[in-house]
Amino acid sequence: MTITRSQEHTNMTTEDTPGTELMLVGGDWIAAADDRWIDVESPRDGSIIGRVPRGSTTEVEQAVSAAATAYKSWSTLPPRERGEAIRLIAAAVEPEIERIARLASLENGNALRTQSRGEARFVVDCFRYFGGLAQEAKGETIPLNPGVLDYTRREPLGVVGAIVPWNAPLMLSTLKISPALVAGNTMVLKVAEDAPLAVLALARICQKFLPAGVLNVVSGYGEEAGEALINHPGVAKLSFTGSTAVGRRVMQAGAERITPVSLELGGKSPQIVFPDADADWVARGVMAGMRFFRQGQSCTAGSRVFVHERIYDSFVARLVESLRTVTVGDPLDESSDIGALVSATQYQRVCNYIEDGMNQDGAQLALGGLPPSEGPLAEGYYVEPTVFTGVDNTWRIASEEIFGPVVCVIPWRDEADVVRMANDTHYGLAGFVWTNDLGAGLRTAHALEAGWVQVNQGGGQVLGQSYGGFKQSGIGREFSLEGMLESYTARKHVSVGLGNN
Ligand code: NAD
Asked: Does residue 459 carry a pLDDT above 90?
């Protein structure tokens, strides 16, 4: 593993200290009424790079009211006009990819080359994809009897309250904004307190093409702005991405008013390596599936790697070897594969899990461990890829979502038993199977209790897939036309008597 200096700052320009940003409410850019602010820290070196308003009930009230007003005309526009506005946003974001990606890396620590640039490109694709689907919110006719014409309409829901986390803020915000708006809803989006700047910069572009109030973006803490939004009676739909604990809270708030909720939550996803898959390409695939290139800060991270006992030692050696080739360092440095964890809190949390693993009887540390206390990596929130072997599936490090670059390798012997272990979790987001045996691969894919299983690949979600979790990993689907229809429209039947009864 190569280490680059985090503090070289050779690219330091004013772009690297974006400064003060405001919230978008009713087409205006505003501060919080009580003039409170949240500092935004860069995890690459702990410096304060900007600040955003600490919005709360007052601003959420204004934003929901503006969204409700805008809904009247936005929802009745011809769908193709809404689609056109969304496609114009895609075109306007395209030349800004580098700037927005850089901002994202600065504030959340994801490496620019391996993560943020791709994430910003996804934003363009996503606006383009959903912009093209504007006329696909079709209804059906139902042949009830010859005397009745019964048909359905897909109608928007109203004001959507959306909340996103910090780990892929551009992608996750776009995945809510574009389908919701195309379907005719308006939105109040609350950005994450740890990474608000890139989404607010994106909102500045969106606003050029949208009527005032169609998209509102509020910054603030979960307990303040977030709670105000999920409890607001004017919100007709809640769309949340984040932890399972907060997702439960969102669902409770929705239950009070029978407000529909979509939840994209946490995971502790399994990767199962069969005895015929002891190969370097599998080790590289497992590394990608574990989302090491995003410091393991991904809901779909395959953080429990079950390796057949016959190839256990050899495969662990390959995995460790592959991980030794990656470079951890300054997220803005083009040579860094892996950047920094998002915040001091996350850094401490991940270190606590590593300590827990190191103190666990029987666990062996095959790579990584606690971060160095001096040298370049000590200057930001950098944690090296960490591999624990000889892990038991019931241990804390194997059962709780660490959300850091820490993988547990667990031996297995029997196919039924490994499937049982893989499913022995309250999560059910993703799964990965590695084998040349088609039957074993598909049997296992079908047996895993997860919303998305990949066989012999470890990539990220692709537009068009209906992505979402089983069990406590979520409710509802995103990423697709079907997801848009399910999450952001309601089906209405209209029954017309034809006058001959
Ligand atoms: P989090 O749940 O702590 O916070 C997410 C968002 O919710 C933030 O904007 C936060 O301010 C807000 N929030 C916090 N408390 C709130 C409350 N009481 N009411 C309303 N809003 C509140 O999660 P995080 O630490 O920011 O993100 C990491 C988590 O997100 C992980 O569990 C990860 O698996 C999950 N995640 C899931 C997906 C998915 O697609 N399933 C994608 C990305 C992240």
From this structure: yes
**Do 254 and 476 form a contact (C-beta atoms < 8 A)?**
no
pLDDT recorded at residue 5: 37
* Local confidence band at 15 (pLDDT 50, 70, 90 cut-offs): low
pLDDT in tens, 18-65: 899 999 999 999 999 999 999 999 999 999 999 999 999 999 999 999
User: Could you say which of 41, 193, 227, 264 is catalytic?
Assistant: 264
Contact in structure between 267 and 471 (CB atoms under 8 Å)? no
Give residue 8's pLDDT band: very low, low, confident or very high (50, 70, 90).
very low
Q: Which domains does the chain have, with CATH numbers?
A: 14-265+474-492 (3.40.605.10), 270-455 (3.40.309.10)
Half-sphere exposure of 451 (CA within 13 A, CB side): 28
Pocket test for ligand 1, best of 246, 262, 461, 479 (most atoms within 8 A of CB): 246
pLDDT classification of 17: cutoffs 50, 70, 90: confident
Q: What is the pLDDT of residue 9?
A: 34
Beta strands in 370-417 (DSSP E): 386-389, 406-412
- Residue ranges around ligand 1 (CB below 6 Å): 163-167, 172, 190, 192-193, 221-223, 226-227, 230, 241-243, 246, 249, 264-267, 299, 401, 403, 429, 469, 474
Beta partners for 474?
A: 264
Q: Ligand 1 pocket check: which of 191, 199, 299 to mutate, most ligand atoms within 8 Å of Cβ?
A: 299
Task: Confirm whether 309 is a catalytic residue.
Answer: no
- Rounded to a whole number of angstroms, the CA Rg of the chain reads 23
Between vectors from CA 478 to CA 474 and to CA 480, what angle results, nearest 5°? Answer: 150
Ligand 1 atom at shortest distance from the alpha carbon of 244: 32
| 359 Cβ contact partners less than 8 Å away, ≥ 6 residues apart | none
Nearest CA to ligand 1 atom 20: 226
Residue 335, token pair as written in the block: 């040579």
Ligand 1, atom 22, lies closest to the CA of 222
Cα atoms in the Cβ-side hemisphere of radius 13 Å centred on 161: 27
**d(Cα 272, Cα 412) in Å, to the nearest integer?**
9
Transcribe 405-443 into DSSP letters. Answer: SEEEEEEE--HHHHHHHHH-SS--SEEEEE-S-HHHHHH
What is the distance between the alpha carbons of residues 347 and 331, in angstroms, rounded to a whole number? Answer: 16
- Rounded to the nearest whole angstrom, what is the distance from the C-alpha of residue 308 to the centroid of ligand 1? 34
CA separation for the pair 397, 268 (Å, rounded): 10
